[in-house]
Design a protein that fits this description.
The complex is a heterodimer of chains A (62) and B (314). Chain A is mostly helical and 62 residues long. In chain A, 73% of the residues lie in helices and 0% in strands. The longest helix of chain A is centred in the middle third of the chain and has 24 residues. In chain A, 31% of the residues are buried. With 314 residues, chain B is α+β, with helices and mostly antiparallel strands. A nine-stranded antiparallel beta sheet of chain B has the order 1-2-3-6-13-12-15-16-9, with no helix packed on it. The N and C termini of chain B lie far apart (62 Å). The chains are: A mainly alpha (62), B alpha+beta (314). Chains A and B meet through helix 2 and helix 3 of A and helix 1 and helix 2 of B.
Amino acid sequence: MERTLAIWLGWSLSEKLSFLIKSGIFLSVCGATLFVTLASSYPAVHDTLHNVRHVLAVVPCH
Amino acid sequence: MLLGANASAAELSIDLKTSPAVGLLRPFADPVSISLLVTYADGRPVEQGSVDIVLDAPRSGAFFSTDFPMVEGSRLLELALPLRQGRAGWKYLFPIRGEYLLSVSVTAADGRVTAKNFVISILENRAKWLWLSLLCVGLFFFGFAAGRIFTVIPATAATSALLLFLGGISTVNGHDGRSPVDKAASPPTALEIAGATVGKPTRLRWRAPDGGNLITLLSLTITHLEKGKMVFAMDGVPVAKQYLLDFHFPDGAEYRVSSLAEVPGKEPVRTVQLVSVTGVEPAVTAQIPALVFFLALIALGLGVGRYSKISRKR
């Protein structure tokens, strides 16, 4: 996708830069997912994953 | 297991015994019977007196939090028990791992006072470390797979699909009380419980129904309803007019507090009260270390995955 965008914009994108962009997006999504599942207080998520949080020993819960 | 040693004052000695032994205790597993034995230097038990007991929770860890961060470093229990044949005992469920500080102050009938501190170390449940390890391995390989997929080698460029394997997550129901403080008391109760909030001790006050004309033997039990576990209990404590107990409810859940008052020659009076403890969200500073650690594992997997693909194609 990032290559298509780069071609469309007329940029040349190295493989390393491409990897960094994809990794950055990937880690952002993973971070958001981890936050929602393990740290958010949204009741539906919290109640569903409450025991998971406790069983991981290092994830705080209320 | 005996943890005690002679107290600083040469005359009285305080010994602490737990059942099961401290090494076998795990947080939020089973309640432990704790008993104190107070003796004179010659080994005779101190027949009469009282014991003031204060239990403080372990301090916060250097990096990782426990699963009950609001409990860390707080006062968990404050109560006074009478000595009977030199003994005083109660049951308690330790909520988190770490080193608890139990401060005991004994006042004998003749006015002599002795104090001693005990450190009780509670190890984390091994199953929890196992689950944490499995998650860490899973996150690493998740990153590893992504690292290989994101690394494109021109000569062999191929379309790859990223497999998301976020499955197998337990869907066991959590808790959460109904309302901040919900009390459902059975008939006119002798038990008064202040609004319970995680993070600070809650005062429980029991008053003798007849104004305290007779000595009552009071038994008090606090039960975590969701877990079905007794978290505190004391049995047959002689009380005159009232009894005060400061108890820290460790999590925002529903608890049942029951008391049984026995007066010789009268019918026992049982009181049951439900307490919905208000949960408090953990501070961000307690949440961030675990999230950063998990994210770092994925990032490490990304790097290793990329390296493995590049090195294989060379």
